[in-house]
């Protein structure tokens, strides 16, 4: 089953339930460059969780769930993987010209309910990896305040060798995803970019999007750009300054597939905006 | 050096074989690269191209970079001429015959183009000159012009950092 396969990839899935609707910490992938020239260039990528985006000072992001997809849809090897105290690192050798997607994606079910004694229960338990096969046996069919949520979480970034290409940007149709109208490696200061959000492959209306410029340590406010997607799932952003930006998006509705009663998705991406 | 030699060869070839109704006009560019008193000086990468009104590239005229570095290593910094890279440099294969050549030191360098512009449709354009220097800065100069020119054109714009005076002249 597709769903099972995705859930089994979900090495961080234990975090799903606790991370949704929580701004406490941001998980990010940060490439050293996003626009590269020359023969088979290399690029290093940091992966971490922190409050101030791109300042690795809290927790490394595990690399177990990272997938790297090349311009022709091929899986790309991650070189020199290492997990530090505050950040993980790896290198990519971009042997094909075009755009590469680096992603951590997970999706699965979570549930909460109350026992007859009024005790609150949740599945998967805190810090546990969910085993989708055990959902039926571990979650009651009927319980007081039973809520089953179909959750997805996706962390992405993009790098391009030579001219940008589009193949790798296609949606998978699972969870909350960003589909570029403007290419994510073709963003410039003072220009507007357009992105479309999809939930399970369909336009997601009302996605709450917060866009944060990097370098947060060197200013006194978050300087967040806040936008909401329209009925076509579209947002438009004009980049005030050049630099690295963190995009965080959240979506929830009750149009879930049974046994879920609601669905929720979070999406995080790092993009670079170049000067004119 | 390579650029000039190739360009002349191309011009020579063009004059021999392409003699339709109209004689091609010649566009001449003088690019001054300033002498900079800096501890670490590297000759700049320079791109010269013709931009349409919508910023698309109508013609790549010259790209000066470290062509001689082994294994095409000099191509790594082509992206630093970021406007040129964005507008079309990134779609090219390097080196490019008649366009790419070695970097130049301080001084005024004349580049003359005719055959590269033989297909250029009549209209309004901008001559673009962009320079980017390792451990230095980056600068872009634009000079608008109309093609083909009715009368002789002579325009000059001065840069402030990485480019000195850039002069455009067109002989009808």
From TrEMBL, chain A:
Residues 1-24 form the signal peptide. Keywords: Signal. Residues 115-138 are annotated as: Disordered. The keyword Secreted does not apply. InterPro entries: DUF4198. Residues 118-138 have a biased composition (Basic and acidic residues). This is DUF4198 domain-containing protein.
From TrEMBL, chain B:
It holds the Pfam family DUF2271. It comes from the Bacteria. InterPro entries: DUF2271 (IPR014469). This is DUF2271 domain-containing protein. The lineage of its organism: Bacteria, Pseudomonadati, Pseudomonadota, Gammaproteobacteria, Alteromonadales.
């Amino acid at each position: 089953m597709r769903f099972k396969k995705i859930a089994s990839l979900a090495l961080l899935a234990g975090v799903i339930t606790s991370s949704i609707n929580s701004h406490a910490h941001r998980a990010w992938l940060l490439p050293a460059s996003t626009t590269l020239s020359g023969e088979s260039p290399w690029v290093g990528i940091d992966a971490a969780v922190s409050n101030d985006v791109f300042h690795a000072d809290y927790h490394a992001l595990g690399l177990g769930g990272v997938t790297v997809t090349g311009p022709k849809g091929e899986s790309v090897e991650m070189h020199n993987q290492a997990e530090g105290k505050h950040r993980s690192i790896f290198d990519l050798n971009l042997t094909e010209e075009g755009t590469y997607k680096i992603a951590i994606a997970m999706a699965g079910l979570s549930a909460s309910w109350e026992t007859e004694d009024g005790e609150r229960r949740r599945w998967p338990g805190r810090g546990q990896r969910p085993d989708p096969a055990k959902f039926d046996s571990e979650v009651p069919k009927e319980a007081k305040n039973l809520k089953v949520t179909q959750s997805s979480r996706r962390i992405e970034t993009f790098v391009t060798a030579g001219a940008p290409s589009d193949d790798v940007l296609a949606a998978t149709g699972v969870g909350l995803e960003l589909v570029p109208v403007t290419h994510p490696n073709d963003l410039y200061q003072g220009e507007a970019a357009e992105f479309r959000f999809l939930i399970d492959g369909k336009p997601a209306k009302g996605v709450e999007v917060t866009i944060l410029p990097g370098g947060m340590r060197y200013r006194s406010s978050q300087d967040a750009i806040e936008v909401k997607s329209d009925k076509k799932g579209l947002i438009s952003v004009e980049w005030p300054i050049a630099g690295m930006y963190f995009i965080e998006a959240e979506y929830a509705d009750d149009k879930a597939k049974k046994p879920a009663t609601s669905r929720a998705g979070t999406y995080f991406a790092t993009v670079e905006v170049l000067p004119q | 050096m390579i650029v000039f030699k190739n360009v002349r060869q191309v011009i020579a070839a063009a004059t021999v074989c392409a003699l339709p109704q109209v004689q091609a006009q010649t566009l001449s560019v003088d690019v001054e690269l300033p002498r900079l008193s800096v501890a670490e000086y590297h000759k700049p990468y320079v791109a010269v191209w013709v931009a349409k009104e919508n910023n698309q590239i109508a013609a790549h005229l010259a790209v000066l970079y470290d062509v001689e570095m082994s294994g095409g290593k000099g191509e790594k910094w082509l992206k630093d001429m970021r406007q040129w890279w964005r507008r079309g440099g990134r779609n090219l294969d390097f080196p490019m015959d008649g366009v790419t050549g070695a970097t130049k030191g301080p001084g005024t360098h004349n580049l003359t183009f005719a055959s590269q512009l033989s297909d250029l449709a009549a209209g309004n354009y901008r001559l673009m000159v962009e320079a980017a220097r390792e451990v230095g800065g980056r600068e872009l100069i634009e000079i608008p012009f109309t093609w083909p020119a009715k009368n002789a054109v002579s325009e000059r714009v001065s840069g402030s950092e990485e480019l000195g005076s850039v002069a455009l002249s067109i002989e009808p």
